Amino acid sequence: MDDATRREIDKVCWRTLKEAGITEPPSNTKLILEHLELYREFYDLQDPGLVDRAKHTMLVNGRKLIHVIKKIRLKAVLFQDEGRIVVDASLPKGKQEWPSLHEAGHRILEWHRPYFFGDTAQTLDPDWQQILEEEANYAASALMFCGPVFATEAKDTKPGWASIEELKKRYKKSYSTTLRRYVQFGPDCPMAMLVSTPQWMEKPADQENRCRHFVPSPVFARRFSQVTASQLIRQVDLSIRRRRGGPVGDFSVVLTDDRGEGHEFRGESFFAQHYIETLFSHVRSLAAKGRIFVPSRSV
Asked: Residue 51 and which of 206, 231, 256, 264 are 20 to 30 A apart at CA?
């Protein structure tokens, strides 16, 4: 997604929030949907009766629902012409907000509307669909975190998990969504978030590997473009301890930038029952050549 598209989505989302009367956190999904005249209902794909009644009549991008649910794990659908969002009822209550706002993102971005009214050569292109989903995710995050309000507050914080905790309480969102937004819009320094499946748990079927999400900050992406999620997972595995939940690791690690120079990063890992969520934040540059740095581990 280019910067011009991001700016346009930011503008649309902030206008939507203000029109809905939301200018301070926490954002209220119900108010947003009501403002957009979107009715939300829930379905259960495990309910044979519901599927039998709906699968041959409900359309998703011009295709009958029955053909879609066989291919993907459908979590929410926007019926643009009906003003209706249908959300998977099996999702935990805390995870229903994101797909709801994702579909609201499709609703408010005018250039998405043709996507919901039959198939064209463009809307059937998988690359085009991926772009639309990325834009809707970006819009969902902006709606969830009050647009520019979060960015203004996050930039004034000290990089670290303590800031994630404070912002999570203020915005009343999950650790994962708060962490992602913080890395993308927080302090202007190298940071990265990693959400991974711990070694002691089985990898979910919808993941190719143990990495669920890897998101670098803009500065990290420019200066540490060669650092991979696999490298960071290895560091996490070496540095965390198995616990039922909560903080599981606080450690130091050296990462090499694109100029070949070493930098010390602090890694802070939190176990949120299903995934390890880790924030890597820049501490200092290791200017002395040939210096040996031994990562520390403490919990």
From this structure: 206
pLDDT at 121: 46
User: 103 and 77 in contact (C-beta within 8 Å)?
Assistant: yes
In angstroms, rounded to a whole number, what is the distance separating the alpha carbons of residues 299 and 294?
Answer: 17
How far, in Å, CA of 286 to CA of 256, rounded?
A: 10
Of 110, 108, 124, 104, the residue nearest 62 (C-alpha):
124
Tokens of 163: 């800031």
Collapsing DSSP to helix, strand or coil, 74 comes out as coil
189, 244, 247, 182: which is closest to 215 by C-alpha? 182
Torsion-angle region of residue 253: left (phi > 0), alpha (psi -120 to 50) or beta?
beta
CA distances from 78 to 34, 71, 84, 204 (A): 14, 18, 6, 26
Contact 109, 136 (CB under 8 A): yes
Query: What is the distance between the alpha carbons of residues 180 and 57, in angstroms, rounded to a whole number?
Result: 37
Summarised one tens digit per residue, pLDDT across range 16-49 is: 999 999 999 999 999 999 999 988 878 765 555 5
- Strand, helix or coil for residue 259: coil
- DSSP annotation string for 124-167: T-HHHHHHHHHHHHHHHHHHHTTTHHHHHHHHTSPSSHHHHHHH
Among 70, 101, 69, residue whose Cα is nearest residue 85: 101
Residues 161, 164: Cα–Cα separation, whole Å: 5
Q: Which two tokens stand for residue 205?
A: 């079927």
What structural domains and CATH numbers belong to the chain?
A: 3-144 (1.10.10.2910), 161-298 (3.30.450)
Q: Which two tokens stand for residue 168?
A: 């999570």
Tokens 């507050």 correspond to 153
Residue that the structure tokens 């805390």 belong to: 94
Closest CA to 265 of 208, 185, 192: 192
Q: Are 161 and 279 in contact (CB under 8 A)?
A: yes
